[in-house]
């Protein structure tokens, strides 16, 4: 894995392993602007990566905070955050990866397989191509979803589920399957705000068909996660 901070400011990447998977880099670190950090994950790794912003010396972060510490050590980031998600060596040795805005958005992010480490098996848009969200959703986040800092600037944008906690927006209860969790049944189509800005990223829980990317390694795919691509 390679994390590149293309933002004009420092970030603090956070990493969280899925159950029974290794935790890379103790779960988090500082990354200066325009710098890269490279690390290894074991075969079959699964987890998520996000960026924390404006952290202080005590480890408290304006967005994506994982409990007032630089190394998250198994704690997830407080949403809203943009997530880079991975399941490596899955079905038939295939990697699965996506950028998720299901829990909201804080920074643009891209996942890209590294040339020479993968083999395409189709001409599909979702076969070993970059996944991500390049747009600045904070710039047009609706006021009822916006997270503002002390200076009044929008620093993150909540999902409708996070903001309103209803079964419709959270795809739960009677709405816990694709047939019953869809825009035609929502009071307002907030996920469309995310989807129109970032068509290749998850905007709600059942947004799989236009958001999940796959790749086969040659022999193992390396990935670059770029914040502010």
TrEMBL record:
One Pfam family cited in the UniProt record for this chain: Thaumatin
Protein's name in the database: Thaumatin-like protein
Gene3D superfamilies found in the cross-reference section: Thaumatin
S-S bridge residues: 7-228, 55-61, 66-72, 128-215, 133-198, 141-157, 161-170, 171-181
UniProt source species: Suidasia medanensis
Keyword hit for Disulfide bond: yes
Regions that span the bilayer: none
Keywords tagged on the record: Disulfide bond
InterPro entries referenced in this protein's UniProt entry, alphabetically: Osmotin/thaumatin-like_sf (IPR037176), Thaumatin (IPR001938)
Keyword Ribosomal protein: no
């Amino acid at each position: 894995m390679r994390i590149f901070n293309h933002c004009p400011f420092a970030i603090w990447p956070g990493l969280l392993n899925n159950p029974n998977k290794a935790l890379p880099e103790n779960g988090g670190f500082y990354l200066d602007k325009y710098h890269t950090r490279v690390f290894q994950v074991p075969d079959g790794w699964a987890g998520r990566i996000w960026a924390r912003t404006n952290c202080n010396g005590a480890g408290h972060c304006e967005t994506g905070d994982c409990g007032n510490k630089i190394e998250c050590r198994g704690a997830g980031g407080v949403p809203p955050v943009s997530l880079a998600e991975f399941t490596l060596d899955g079905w038939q040795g295939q990697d699965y990866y996506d950028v998720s805005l299901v829990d909201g958005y804080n920074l643009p992010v891209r996942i890209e397989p590294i040339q020479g480490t993968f083999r395409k098996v189709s001409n599909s848009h979702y076969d070993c191509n970059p996944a991500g969200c390049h747009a600045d959703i904070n710039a047009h986040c609706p006021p009822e979803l916006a997270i503002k800092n002390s200076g009044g600037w929008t620093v993150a944008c909540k999902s409708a589920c996070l903001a309103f906690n209803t079964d419709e927006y959270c795809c739960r209860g009677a709405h816990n399957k694709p047939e019953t969790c869809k825009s035609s049944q929502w009071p307002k189509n907030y996920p469309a705000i995310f989807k129109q800005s970032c068509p290749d990223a998850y905007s709600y829980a059942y947004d799989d068909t236009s958001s999940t990317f796959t790749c086969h390694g040659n022999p193992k795919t390396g990935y670059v996660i770029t914040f502010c691509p």
